[in-house]
Specification:
Layout lengths: L1 H11 L10 H34 L11 H23 L5 H11 L3 H4 L5 H22 L5 H20 L1
């Protein structure tokens, strides 16, 4: 009879539809995003100027010169993504890979949009955008129902891409 009472109490307990997140975890997640954005921006500038442009813009291969920023963006987003996953995992954030993947998809090509700015302005804007993306997508990734979380972050990603491209 005692076992039945314990079993009934266990089934009556409601599970929250959201994984709990403290203010400290949210701030830590945003700071990881800011750091990743700053690293991506500086690395993009350095790789584009000193590696890819130097290699692809030689007189022998001028046709590939226009692709140098794209190659630099691909490499920096890959390096930044790895750093983002590691940073979020170290701070014990729920679903770090989902946060990083949708942030990269949403902000893909932001370096090309900010290319005309000075490097320090581009770095600050990129860092702020990545911080916001990590914060918003991390907050949405707390939803326990994985399918619902995927649908919501996909809709938000499409909206962000639409705003960036427009």
């Amino acid at each position: 009879m005692v076992k039945e009472a314990v079993h009934e109490d266990a089934t009556d307990a409601r599970v929250s539809p959201l994984v709990s997140m403290s203010r400290r975890e949210l701030i830590g997640m945003i700071l990881v995003g800011v750091a990743v954005g700053a690293i991506i921006s500086v690395l993009y500038f350095l790789l584009n100027k000193f590696i890819f442009s130097a290699v692809l813009c030689r007189p022998q291969s001028t046709a590939d010169c226009g692709q140098a920023p794209n190659y630099a963006m691909i490499v920096t987003m890959l390096v930044g993504s790895i750093g983002g996953v590691v940073g979020l995992a170290r701070t014990r954030i729920y679903r770090p890979l989902l946060i990083v993947i949708v942030s990269v998809i949403a902000l893909w090509g932001i370096q090309n949009v900010l290319m005309g700015l000075d490097w320090y302005w581009a770095m600050m804007i990129t860092a702020v955008f990545f911080g916001l993306a990590y914060g918003v997508f991390g907050w949405l990734a707390r939803i326990r129902n994985f399918i619902l979380a995927i649908v919501l972050v996909a809709v938000l990603t499409v909206l962000v891409r639409w705003v960036l491209v427009a």
